[in-house]
Design a protein that fits this description.
hydrolase (chains A, B); alpha+beta; 20 helices; calcium (chains A, B); homodimer
Chain lengths: 792, 792
């Protein structure tokens, strides 16, 4: 099913608002006295790009995106949950839970409520904090079921009465005749509910609801009704984050007339509360599983608004966040300002597309890329650290939710181009994490002051090295390097002890051993590059040596990377098409064997030379992956693969660009264009796999622009085939980098010639400085491969 | 069984230390340049009074005191727990739990371990945080049972190898041949364990252990092994305090060689921790029910020391508390300094006793009176408030654990004499509680940033009024009065709505209605007195009227206070000897009917006049209370009553002094001396009832000195019969108030004459100013009543 083109939404409601917002933005920047001409040129060209963002993309099947309202990199992601499926079903894992990583599935027909925190595109989840649902009529405190929504507070809805924009979401809740509208600033969600006339209008706050809800996920919930328009509290969970606490402050635009809780708690307070009726109008509630309700009388069409602020620190922090970010009740103003912010972020790349679908794809990819990592501190700079103490972020913005196994590949490199300040602060956040870590480790997959250890490698070091090598060092580079070195030497971490001793992880000691060995080797190379840049020869030498370890798991006989045992022999019964039990994770050996991004030439040599390798890549894209193997390919839909090339998961993201290291770089070009078309479509089920907090989108952005960072930690980008007519990258330093594509069309997918600042390129590569200094990259396209290009 | 006289301990180990401490104290005060002569006189007379303190008193039967180590008003109460009985047994209430309010019962034969927080003498409990037990040999992680201690880590012990002093405790753990010694500063407990030679010496940290442990009392526990000598973490509970969190930092004097946890948790983390062996040497532990162990090798006689700091704020706060309070590893020095502090507190009254037992009773009473409320803030003034936010105590010390139904009677009045600065700060703490309370209420029974609502009344107002009336206002008196007024008008609190409407609490609307009506009326009078002092006539008039409400529950026919129903009729089937279901709580009508402390003259008039009333009191003391009624008398042993006079519980504490308002004040005198002798004995089972955080002890101190505050909120003390030869009260203002008793002996219990500063008293009363200005009160005693004294 196709969703409504987002332009239509604009035509209805937004045209003037956004136009006004754009004006505001200019005024604002002028007021601040922006220093250089380029920056003000930027604002002169300011375009309404929010109109192209469609948050519905990826909300069906495996995309795991959410359609709700959020500000760029916002702490609050206020979004509808169409189900809150429990992790356990009759005591067993419930496979349906996986669909609800972002709380919303496009095919569902009911909305349970609107919760304030969501990951975007992840392959695991948590969060879903503070679900709010407005209802009228008889008070129901349980959500009910999709098959019989009347059994609970959830409501039917229809996509035809649903609109999603960057920073705004609305839906008609059919069961209650309530129009729900959502917007958000960085730390505050704002709700606007248009009620019918009713003597029994309710706002339900369900603290038991959550995403990936284990039976005992809630550790504690706490609610205080401070007065008749302000409620505070917190939710403490033991989910994917082991010890996670989010505080809130919720303000109502009109006084509540009555409130209460229904007790769903096994753990009832055994003190002297029998003095009171705790269930009605008693302003203190606490327990493992709280649900509260707040009642109003409403007139026909009356808008009840809620400001809902969160904080990692305290309810005091949440109240302060609310007061600073939304010191008024003007819903439209919040929406406008947030959409302004989005426009400002989106204008960092201005695109002239081949067709309008590409505008939607591109700016939705930009939107998804700018959803996280998310700001994780109060407006006063305080945040909760890994040690559970409150820390002050000194001169940086603290971020959380680092899905690093995914995002080190292209998202953080993209930030080094489009968001260098934020990327530096993300590294500051990682180094703070390191300083707070009792292991002395940088984040692996961390969120909300917790390390969840998800996936493999220690890819923070890649993010750090990439920034150092590219000269983006708004952080203490030496401290970050030392943190990287220390992280790479924690012996009890995931086979590292063996890796350091033997040069590979033995499969019989630690599973997924090949994937780990390959990724450690790459990470080690990245550390070496940073050390080299900083003149630390000892570290460079030490880690350059470790970077060669990929060779230790290469099986010359089979021509694949293959698990090795502790005794040095290869594991028997090896199947390079299978993933499970073969020494790999989230990728079979066919894909993972190509994972030596830091030494393509050596790898190609090892695998039989350029010609053999080029054909090997051809096979990957053309072979058939039988269903029994596909089922082992995680996190993607069938659309997420091409042959046996698995674009829907990360290990292959650099693969198509490897042709550049053979004599057949032209073979990458049509394939890149094919992947862009096949894997990214402007519809709810348009993503071929989890968006993975923007990594999939970052691939799309880079590849559309015509270049890609095959090995973060190098300052080199591999050229591909740009998929637009022209693009201007408005850099933070005020420079502009233009990519102009001549003779571009849907058919002309092959590159005939490339000029950088008027000078023809002899190799399919550009450098980071070429971009950052500003300049122009001219592609000349053709419908036939230029087989001697770059080989002249 | 008699415990060893505490003097003996001193002879063995302490004589020189304490002598040296006393010298230190003088030096210290001189260094600080104490301003006035009186204060330095005070130090000239400085006596070693710690030698008379016997912390074992009250540890048997119903005293509910603990024998462990603590500083005056200290946050840490480091004390042995002889059992950690669960609240529930086969799903039902386990009556044995009540014995263990302070964790220790003198008749027990094993020690489970040493935990860091204990209430003193309370009739309900909580706490018992962070139990530590040293063991050797095979690691056992469960406590085992008293009947078979070898099944767990607990150890046998004997009182002959056990010593308890103010600020110091030691015991030989027989099963392990370990000598355990404990001392403490305000926020840090210090352990010293003398181990035998062993390759397997363990320190167990059991976070599942606690006092009044409900099945699901632990909400969350969290441990970080920061390095090989420092461990941090917290324990969050849902016990008597609904949401309570205590942080800790634990330092070892020598590095641990190995550590780990055993998992007793239903709620196992479901994230990606399978990467690690979490059970051994993994520095992050978290879950509902953690137990950890730390291993050492020890040589024969090796002392392993532990500093264990707690904080209401954070582990960072705990570490800071440790560093500030004990920046070294000298156990003896800590003990010495803490015993110095105790001596300094005890020297506030210097006594010349009739016999040496009285010295033990008196200074142990002083010790018990100065155990709480306890300091509740970090050394930097930060503390957790009722709203769970972190607050800064500005210019006051924040206290917690207000057992106000008990302590408003004599303990806080005693503080107005001996601890005016602390009492002002306790009021500052109460007003802060009020400011943080979502109910707008002062504390009822509050501890650790929680209100547990225990017992009845709103007696914070009495503490505030008493301080205001007595001119002890190191707090904002007007703000405190307004907080009192607001507290007294919260309609949903415990029948207040009815009380305000009808002038009494109807028994059919809200139980224990007579007790509540009487105590509200007294509290209201106290508010009126404070208002009068501050010139707030409206409040004075309003609450003076409410103070008359005691009349509304007086039943002229029976001559008793009696429960009234909503319709205005008295409840039928009334039994003034029974407590349960009769409209009273923790006291029958015989005792409670005398509870009009603020208007004895009017009460006596109402009850038939002076002569009838005097005889009525005689009956109380001489009648027989049948067993079936005694069983309804809570919290006391059979020794806690005289006739039907229940001294072991609080409602009667003023009763014996009521003779002063009749023409027979002499009748109080022998009874006071009898109560002092009968209810307070220098042995483990020497207390007739719960010490109730010092209230019982405060009664002893006042009565021994010869006067008692019948109605806090008045500046008048009723005279009794002093039980010593002379006493000097060293006041904080530098003045001295001396009580000299002439012709004193065990037999001469009647007062023949009283002179205040040489002038004979015509009435059996003195005023607070008489004390605070300094002066001398001379009693002349006789073995026969002087029936015309005060009636001249």
């Amino acid at each position: 099913m196709m969703i409504k083109p987002p332009k239509f939404i604009y035509e209805c409601t937004l045209k003037f608002a956004v136009f006004f917002s754009a004006l505001m933005f200019v005024t604002c920047n002028q007021k601040k006295g922006v220093a250089n001409e380029s920056a003000s040129n930027h604002t002169d060209d300011f375009q309404n790009l929010v109109q192209y963002v469609d948050p519905m993309i990826g909300t069906a099947k495996m995309g795991h995106t959410y359609p709700g309202a959020t500000a760029p990199f916002g702490s609050v992601q206020l979004s509808p949950d169409t189900d809150t499926i429990p992790y356990e079903l009759d005591g067993h894992y419930n496979p349906d839970v996986y669909k609800y990583c972002a709380g919303y599935q496009y095919d569902d027909t009911t909305i349970v409520g609107f919760s304030h925190t969501h990951f975007s595109g992840t392959g695991h989840s948590d969060l879903g904090d503070f679900l709010i649902m407005p209802t009228v009529g008889e008070l129901q405190m349980n959500p009910g079921t999709e098959s019989n929504p009347d059994t609970g507070y959830r409501s039917r809805f229809s996509h035809k009465n649903e609109h999603a924009e960057a920073g705004y979401y609305s839906v008609q809740l059919e069961d209650y005749n309530i129009k729900a509208e959502l917007t958000a600033t960085t730390r505050v969600g704002m709700h606007q509910y248009t009620f019918p006339k009713s003597e029994a209008s309710h706002i339900i706050l369900d603290l038991t609801s959550g995403i990936y809800n284990y039976k005992e996920k809630n550790v504690w919930t706490f609610v205080r009704v401070e007065n008749d328009t302000l409620v505070t509290g917190y939710r403490q969970t033991n989910g994917w984050a082991r010890t996670r606490k989010v505080y809130f402050a919720m303000a109502f635009s009109k006084p509540i007339t009555k409130y209460g809780q229904e007790n769903y708690d096994n753990n009832v307070y055994k003190g002297f509360w029998r003095k009171f009726d705790q269930n009605t109008n008693f302003p203190e509630m606490a327990g493992e599983n709280l649900k509260a309700y707040f009642d109003f009388n409403t007139s026909e069409g009356e808008k009840v608004k809620i400001k809902f602020a969160i904080s990692p620190v305290s309810t005091k922090g949440a109240i302060n966040n609310m007061n600073v970010e939304i010191p008024h009740w003007d819903f439209e103003k919040v929406k406008e300002e947030t959409q302004n912010s989005w426009n400002s972020e989106l204008n960092k790349v201005q695109l002239d597309p081949i067709n309008q679908d590409e505008m939607v794809n591109f700016y939705t990819a930009m939107y998804h890329a700018f959803l996280g990592p998310t700001v994780y501190m109060d407006v006063d700079g305080k945040y909760r650290g890994l040690d559970m103490n409150i820390h002050q972020a000194e001169n940086f913005t603290n971020y959380t939710s680092f899905s690093l196994w995914d995002t080190y590949r292209a998202l953080h490199p993209l930030f080094n181009v489009l968001q260098p300040k934020r990327n530096s602060d993300m590294i500051n956040s990682m180094v703070s994490h390191y300083n707070q870590s009792v292991h002395g480790m940088l984040p692996v997959w961390s969120h909300y002051a917790n390390e969840n250890w998800c996936m493999i490698g220690y890819h923070s070091v890649s993010v750090i090295a990439d920034a150092i090598v590219k000269g983006n060092t708004g952080f203490d580079a030496e401290a970050a390097l030392m943190a990287s070195v220390h992280t790479a030497k924690v012996p009890y971490y995931d086979g590292l002890e063996y890796y350091m001793e033997k040069g590979y992880v033995p499969e019989d000691k630690n599973g997924s051993s090949v994937s780990k060995t390959l990724e450690y080797a790459y990470d080690d190379w990245a550390i070496a590059q940073a050390a080299k840049k900083l003149g630390k020869d000892d570290i460079y030498n030490e880690f350059s040596e470790r970077a060669e370890n990929y060779k230790n798991v290469y099986d010359e006989k089979s021509g694949f990377m293959r698990p090795k045992l502790d005794d040095g022999s290869f594991k028997k019964d090896f199947d390079p098409l299978n993933t499970h039990g073969q020494g790999f994770i989230e990728g079979n050996s066919w894909n993972y064997s190509l994972y030596v991004p830091h030494a393509p030439n050596k790898m190609i040599e090892m695998m039989g030379g350029k010609e053999v390798f080029s054909q090997h890549l051809d096979s990957l894209f053309s072979m058939d992956l039988p269903d029994k193997y596909f089922e082992n390919t995680e996190d993607i839909s069938r659309e997420g693969i091409i042959g046996n090339y698995v674009h829907g998961n990360e290990p292959s993201h650099h693969v198509v660009y490897l042709y550049n290291w053979t004599d057949t770089p032209w073979k990458s070009q049509d394939k890149i264009r094919m992947i862009l078309k096949a894997m990214y479509q402007p519809k709810a089920d348009g993503l071929g796999g989890n968006d993975d907090f923007g990594q999939m989108s970052a691939w799309y952005i880079f590849s559309t622009l015509g270049f890609y960072p095959v090995a973060p930690g190098s300052d080199v980008y591999a050229l591909g085939s740009p998929a637009m007519k022209s693009a201007t990258v408005n850099l933070e330093n005020g420079n502009k980098f233009k990519v102009v594509v001549n003779n571009q069309s849907e058919e002309n997918v092959f590159v005939d010639k490339v000029l950088l600042n008027g000078k023809e390129l002899k190799e399919p590569f550009i450098k980071h400085d070429d971009i950052i200094k500003g300049g122009e990259l001219n592609f000349y396209m053709s419908n036939r491969p230029n087989k001697i290009l770059y080989n002249k």
